[in-house]
Structures are given as C-alpha cells and as structure tokens.
C-alpha cells in the first residue's frame, strides 16, 4: 500500500516538476539511464516520475509505455528475492502499460530491457502467482494465473510448448528450468490445468533465494539433505575444479564429473543447493533440463546431457546423442501439438530455435557445407516441422546458417 501511495504522489507532482522543464527525449533517456545503473543504484521511483512526464508529452510512444511497465514491475519486485512481497495493484499498473504497448505497436520494435512485452505480461502474472504460492495461498495463485490469462498472458503457443516439455519427462522426474518462458508457463500448467503434477519443476535462478528452496522442500517434497538452518544460510564459496561422485542405487556404480567454478572462482548458493539436490536424489528420479540452458548454471553437466527436442536429459552412463531418425520421430510427435505462434513475441519463439540448433548439431554443422544430400535432408526436416513462415527464426546465427544452406 505504501508503494502505491508513493507512486500516486509521484504521478501527481511529476508533471509540475518535470513535464514543462524537459523535452520528451530527455525524460525518456533519464528514465532509461536508471535501468542501466548498477543494481543497487537503480531508482525506479525516479524512472516512474520521468516516464509519466514523458508520456504526458507523447502518449503514443510505445517505448515509454514499455519502460514504464518495467519500472512499475521492478518497483514492485526488483528481483527474485522479493517475489513473495509482490502486490496486485502494481501488477495491474504494469499490465495497463503493456496493453498500451500492444495497442500502439503489436510487434514492439524498441529496445528490450529483458523480455518482449508479451513474455513480460506472462512473467508478471506468473510471478505474482508464485508469490502467492510461497505465502501458502494456493487459491490466490490459481486466481492470478487465470486472471493473467484472461488479460492476455499465457498464450496458447507458449503453453503448448511447455505442455510438450512436461510430457517429454518420465514419471516423477525433476525438471530444472531456466528462464521465464519456461518456469512461469510450467507453473501455470501444473497449477491451473493440473498437468503432470508428478514432475517437480525447479527454477535454477530462484534457488539463490531463501524463500524458494524453502517452498520446494515444504510444499513439493524436494529433499536437499540439509537441515533447515543449513538450507537457509548456505552461501557462495570459493571453488577450484573438483571431481564429484554421486553414488547410485546400483552397487559399485557411481556418477563422477568435474565441477568448475560457476562465477569468478566461486560456486553460488544456488549451485550448492542444486548439487545437494543431485546428491540426495542419487538418480532415483530422472533429471531433465529445459532447452537453451546457460552453461554456467548447469554445474558443469553439459557434457553429460542427451538432447531431445523439448528437453535435455542428464545421463548417468553415457552422453551419446540420439540418432537423427529417432530425434525427428520425437520432433514429429510434439510439433503436431504446437498451437499457432504469436509472431510478435520474440522470446516465445526461442525454444524453436533451440530445436533448430540441435538438428544442425546432429547433422554436423561443418559437414553440411560439403554434403548436398545432408543439407537437403536437413532443409526438408526444417521445412516440414519448423517452417519459418509459421515459426520465424530469431537467432541471427541460426538464421544466417540456414540461409547459407539455401544458397548452396
């Protein structure tokens, strides 16, 4: 309530203090400068003042509305640590500004602060719902998810992608997710549609908070093998390359790999909790990763993953990849379930580019230039299952490579 009163006061006084003194571009640039500062120095209250004054001068500028949506959002919750404290009124203000962006520029072409406007809308309502869940308000969480969908979040395409991801997992699996276009829709599907609730989704970034591991353990039965005090107070630690072995339920067999530092000579809190989870699990439950996972967040497991179209699976014994025919058979099964894409939401299309990248790797990127038959086979698979007129390519490198094959 105090946050909202603070913002209302800013809105009332800002036209008198700023609107008549600075031109539109100056106001917009001063607001954007707040987002560019070091995290602790960012002043979203000031950004809100500048942007409201800018919009008074130019109400049809989509970038100003987009930045104001982000300013309200970050004033509400600046990062994952404050998600449980999010307030509905600021989510509604964020939503109003994003709706203005959709109306003014359906395919927003301005610079992104992080997410495209459509992905941001989904993230905003999903984060509010996760915050409710963390506060033991499951009914409020479901309400927020359904209300968000009513207001345009959680579109059919991103839900169909994540539905296929859940259905790619084996029974009772652990699915490690990275990125709002995975974690948030997965939460929607499990809470609002009760889909594959046997799968436990773990967001890798939110493991760095205190509230999220606590929620996973108390509400979802994730066992870190730590006391409550150890779990809540675990910190980053200095780390050098070290071999780690996880024993399994098979006598005489274990899984050994070398963990490298994840950040400037350290393992972060989230890395250590993820390692504790893996040690406690001992491969009793299959472990999967969402696609496009940041390598630094994978605890050096990237060489032990088998790529499937919708997920990457951690393998205890081998990292041997699927053959092309087996991969395409899986791809055919899941693409048949995809809804039509929102071509204005760049972030939602990234999972399609990750599949394209897998296929290029399976065919052998270097070999394709010198093997016309292989190049033709790849182009036919892409044209059949991932046509660019239906799923536009967003990765510049992948787009360029596919175009180069067309020119061969």
Topology:
Layout: H1 2-19, H2 24-36, H3 44-57, H4 62-76, H5 88-104, H6 117-134, H7 138-150, H8 156-168, E1 174-177, H9 180-192, E2 200-203, H10 211-220, H11 228-233, E3 237-238, E4 242-247, E5 254-259, E6 266-267, H12 269-281, E7 287-290, E8 305-307, E9 311-314, H13 324-335, H14 350-363, H15 365-368, H16 372-385, H17 396-406
Parallel strand pairs: 1-2, 1-7
Antiparallel strand pairs: 3-6, 4-5, 7-9, 8-9
Helix pairs in contact: 1-3, 2-3, 3-4, 4-5, 5-6, 6-7, 6-9, 8-9, 14-16
Total strand count, please? Answer: 9
Bulk shape: globular
Helix content: 40-55%
Radius of gyration from the alpha-carbon trace, in angstroms: 23 Å
| Major sheet | 5 strands, mixed
Order of helices and strands: HHHHHHHHEHEHHEEEEHEEEHHHHH
- What are the low-pLDDT stretches, counting only 5+ consecutive residues below 50? 12-20
Count of DSSP helices? 17
- End-to-end CA span: 62 Å
Tell me the number of structural domains.
Answer: 3
List keywords for this structure.
alpha/beta, 17 helices, 408 residues, two-stranded antiparallel sheet, globular, Serine Threonine Protein Phosphatase 5, Tetratricopeptide repeat
Give a written overview of the molecule.
The structure is a single chain. The relative contact order is 0.08. The chain is globular, with a radius of gyration of 23 Å. Helix 14 (350-363) packs antiparallel against helix 16 (372-385). Helices cover 53% and strands 9% of the residues. The chain is built from 17 helices and 9 strands. The strands form 3 sheets. A 5-stranded mixed sheet has the order 2-1-7-9-8. The termini are far apart. The protein has 3 domains: 2-150, Tetratricopeptide repeat domain (Serine Threonine Protein Phosphatase 5, Tetratricopeptide repeat, Alpha Horseshoe), CATH 1.25.40; 156-320, no CATH class; 331-406, no CATH class. With 408 residues, it is an alpha/beta fold. It has helices spanning 2-19, 24-36, 44-57, 62-76, 88-104, 117-134, 138-150, 156-168, 180-192, 211-220, 228-233, 269-281, 324-335, 350-363, 365-368, 372-385, 396-406, and strands spanning 174-177, 200-203, 237-238, 242-247, 254-259, 266-267, 287-290, 305-307, 311-314. The longest helix has 18 residues, at 2-19. Helix 9 (180-192) links the parallel strand 1 and strand 2 (200-203).
């Amino acid at each position: 309530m105090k946050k909202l009163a603070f913002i209302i006061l800013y809105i009332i006084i800002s036209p008198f203090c700023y609107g008549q003194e600075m031109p539109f571009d100056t106001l917009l640039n001063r607001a954007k400068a707040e987002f560019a500062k070091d995290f602790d120095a960012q002043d979203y209250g000031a950004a809100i003042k500048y942007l409201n004054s800018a919009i008074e001068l130019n109400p049809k500028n989509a970038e100003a509305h987009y930045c104001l949506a982000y300013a309200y959002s970050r004033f509400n919750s600046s990062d994952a640590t404050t998600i449980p404290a999010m307030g509905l009124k600021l989510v509604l203000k964020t939503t109003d500004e994003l709706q203005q962006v959709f109306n003014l520029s359906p395919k927003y072409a301005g610079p992104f602060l992080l997410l495209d406007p459509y992905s941001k809308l989904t993230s905003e309502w999903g984060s509010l719902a996760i915050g409710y869940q963390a506060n033991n308000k499951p009914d409020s969480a479901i309400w927020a998810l359904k209300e968000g969908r009513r207001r345009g979040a959680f579109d059919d395409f991103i839900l169909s992608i994540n539905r296929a991801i859940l259905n790619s997992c084996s029974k009772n699996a652990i699915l490690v997710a990275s990125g709002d276009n995975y974690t948030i829709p997965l939460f929607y599907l499990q809470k609002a549609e009760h889909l594959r609730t046997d799968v436990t989704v773990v967001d890798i970034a939110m493991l760095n908070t205190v509230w999220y591991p606590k929620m996973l353990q108390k509400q979802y039965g994730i066992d870190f093998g730590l006391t409550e005090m150890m779990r809540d107070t675990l910190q980053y630690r200095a780390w050098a390359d070290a071999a780690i072995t996880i024993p399994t339920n098979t006598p005489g067999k274990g899984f050994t790999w070398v963990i490298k530092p994840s950040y400037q000579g350290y393992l972060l809190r989230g890395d250590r909790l993820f390692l504790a989870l893996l040690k406690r699990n001992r491969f009793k439950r299959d472990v999967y990763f969402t696609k496009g996972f940041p390598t630094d967040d994978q605890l050096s497991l990237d060489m032990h993953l088998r790529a499937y179209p919708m997920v990457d699976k951690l393998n205890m014994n081998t990292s041997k990849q699927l053959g092309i025919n087996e991969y395409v058979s899986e791809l055919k099964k899941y693409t048949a379930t995809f809804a039509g894409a929102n071509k204005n939401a760049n972030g939602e299309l990234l999972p399609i580019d990750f599949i394209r990248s897998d296929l290029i790797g399976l065919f052998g990127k270097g070999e394709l230039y010198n093997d016309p038959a292989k190049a033709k086979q790849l182009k036919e698979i892409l044209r059949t299952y991932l046509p660019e007129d239906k799923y536009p390519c967003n990765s510049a490198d992948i787009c360029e490579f596919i175009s180069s094959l067309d020119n061969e």
